[in-house]
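Q: I have three molecules that I believe assemble together. Could you output structure tokens for the complex as a whole instead of separate predictions?
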Amino acid sequence: MRGSLLSCRDVAVEFDVSGRTLRAVDGVDLDVEPATTVGIVGESGCGKSTLARAIMGLGPVSRGSITLEGRELVGLTPRQLRPLRPALQMVFQNPFGSLNPRLSVGRIVEEPLFVQGIGDRATRRARVRELLDMVGLDAGSEQQFPHQFSGGQRQRIAIARALALEPRLIVCDEPVSALDVSVQAQVLNLLVRLQRDLGIAYLFISHDLSVVRHLAHRTVVMYLGRIVAESSDRSFWSVPLHPYVTALRDATPTMGVLDDDAKASTLLEGEVPSALSPPPGCRFSTRCPYVTDHCRTVYPELRAVSDVESVACHRVEIAADGRIRTPWGVNTSVAERRSAARPTTGANASAPVVDARGDAVLAPTPAGDRMTAANAP
Amino acid sequence: MNAAPALLEVDGLVVESVAGARPVRLVDGVSFRLDVGGTLAIVGESGCGKSLTALSLLRILPEPGVRLREGSIRLSGEDLAKASEARMCQVRNGAISMIFQDPIASLNPVQTIGAQIVEAIRSHRDVAKTEARQQAIALLRSVHLPDPETRIDYYPHQLSGGMCQRVMIAMALASKPRVLIADEPTTALDTTVQAQVMALLKQAQRDTGTAVVLITHNLAVAADAAEQVAVMYAGRIVESGPVRAVFRSPAHPYTRGLLAAIPSGGEIAESGDIARLVEIPGTVPRPGSLVEGCAFAPRCPRRQPRCTREQPGLESNGDPARAAACFYPHDGAVQ
Amino acid sequence: MIARLGFWSRFARSPTALFGLVVLAVIVVLAIVGPFLYSADPWAMTTTPFEWPGADPAHPLGSDNAGRDVLAGLIHGARVSLTIGITAASAAVLIGVVVGAVAGYFRGAIDDLLMRFTEVFQTIPHFLLVIVLVALLQPSTAIICAAIAIVSWPPVARLVRGQFLTLRQRAFVESCVVIGMGTPRIIFTQILPNCVAPIIVTGSIMVASAILIEAGLSFLGLGDPNSMSWGAMIGFGRESLRTAWYLAAIPGLAIQLTVLAISFVSEGLNDALNPRLG
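A: Yes, here they are, computed for all three components at once.
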């Protein structure tokens, strides 16, 4: 899409494994608009991390183009890439391995400025303090070392470092997967706030559906190196247009299970096939409950369902009248997908209660709650 | 509450770490019961002591640094906390089995899975090797491992994580244990594989009548798999009861905070604004940082002066099936 | 550096490490200050040969086959042995770090080439190679140090290579690539400081083995003829092992004590630098 902040066209990353070709990423088109979040979801072997690393220049790119603000990144030498680095930064998954244990926090956050030759010592230190404050760490953290901080705090330090060069896009590779639920909430809130205040875009990679559902404006689902479905539509997960998306959603336990007594979904059989010898047709054909011979032999290219949604599935019928039908019981139209209300069944058991300022109130006290005589102070 | 005697009754379990200058309580007086064929989920965040609680049931704590100090662990009346090591060897993978988080690492990398299952079978029953091998194949089939006659001679590294976890489940159930402890059994697996493994566990449980203690940090997994739940914080159980009741109307502020922190998965609002997740301010206290009164008080929005002076015990307020360790528990459903 | 205080307290927890440190300190002081306090020239033949220790108060540890003072030899020998040990070990560490770092960081063809090169040096018997090198060139202290370094660097290279292979993939190194840091800076400021600990430990063990190699050389008469090292002293006593065994025993004991002290200290360093135990 023209004007996109980040644009990937037919990106492929292939590795040679004992004479055979492993196509970790096999022809991916992706766009990230400024100040939005694109979430990439998939299981192991889908290529999401490989794609992220390729975008960051940490891994090879076998073919395709990756442009950042119109400038081509593929094929650049490290020296040529250097001045472009500030616009594109990364937060890594493991909070315990992503910070140099021998450097103080202040130095860790200052390092990007130092390397890019920005400012003098005094201005850099001031900026470090500003960044630490932005991520909610107090001033004393500067002199301390990573091992003195918890996982969530370390991710904040990593985020502060990623912000140092005022990036336009931050690639987040499973940034909260290693964190506890309550800490995860803190870090996710921080990321959202930073996006709102600084206009940063995120390419957010995660295997956790509920996290991606929470903060992605656009969701991309990958399977064995290819995109199988992508959408900015609200009903992407609630009314899925791809059997793998359905399977992922059904396989993810949510609190809604407390209300629904019977789970109507069928579980997927088998496991992700090896990326060394993918099936000739649709990659998902080996496990798909709706597979046909056509699916097994002909690869389904990504088809646009609307201007904001595409799926790669033969079984999705888009009729002339604009209605979309699938064998798994979907019968909808583009307009209906856009205006879909938030589903009421079960998915949202404990919605945060907001006060007048719009900030959520911790541990909401609903109407039925009151201090009884037994527990009054 | 079930009036029949429980299958497993843990009372006042205390596990402490003696590695440092003074002993630090990592599990501080945990009590729970598990009924025959029931499923109890112990949930909590890192450092709350849930894994140590599980390990202490089988007395496989990383000694000498960490040890069981007090408490009783009654399995059908027999106190395992006082049992001899020889007796515990009989119990392990006999009456009580366990499966762990990382399935590939839990298997011996230099033995075929067949050899390991046969070993598990023969360690508790006097069975000939050929007979044991047949039983092993049958077990692998029962856990839906594809092509078991061939795979039985595979090494762990030749199998995927999901398959290894199935092998672990097969080994654990070989002796038809009365209790199966599952410590984060699906955390290291892909989403779709997680669902398969959890379904397998449930089915195996139905087939053999095994009771399950499920340790997890994922509340939704607990909601899906368990009937009873115990929420742990800083080495203590802060809330327990039937899973539906506890998660729909949590009494303890920590439970409520945890539930609210889970991304609801709702779609982004019209304006593009993303809802703010409810945070619990602060961080989990380090083990050994002695706090007077309730361990959660520093982070609790309902904190009162009493909370920082006295430690609340696990009390049933009204409903005998539920209990919460809080002087000012919540009293209604979440909106 | 992180928690310097913590390092010393951990080091001090081991009684053997402390013992080793004290002994080493004594030897070092002896080597530095000794010649000024006890200024006898070790080469001066000042007395009758084969005097036993204690027989003559002017020569407390007796005299050797040529009438030279044993104590003087011991003190000067300390200087020689320690100098050679530290110099040779430092040179070996330097070579090993360079080879290992380049191999581990760049991997691929460079790694293969360097590792084959390393294997060549590892497969030749060390002591024999040292002898050959020293025999080919003149047996001066500098040549001996170089020869010892040449046979000692391969284990360091392997170690550093392993460290670099691991550390290079760590997220914090990748995050430096992402901010545009150049390769040399990454190697020196990110990776090397994180593998200093095992290098120090290996290096300290190398001092001990360098001392032993030098002693062996000198014992065989292949050492520097101008330096009175402990090995040379053992060599002088070689022919009279049955009658005047103290000539070999005293410097032998000195070597043993030094090597033991070094290994205690390096064990203590290992424990102190890796505080994950207990």
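A: One point stands out. Residues 220 and 235 of chain C are 6 Å apart (CA to CA).
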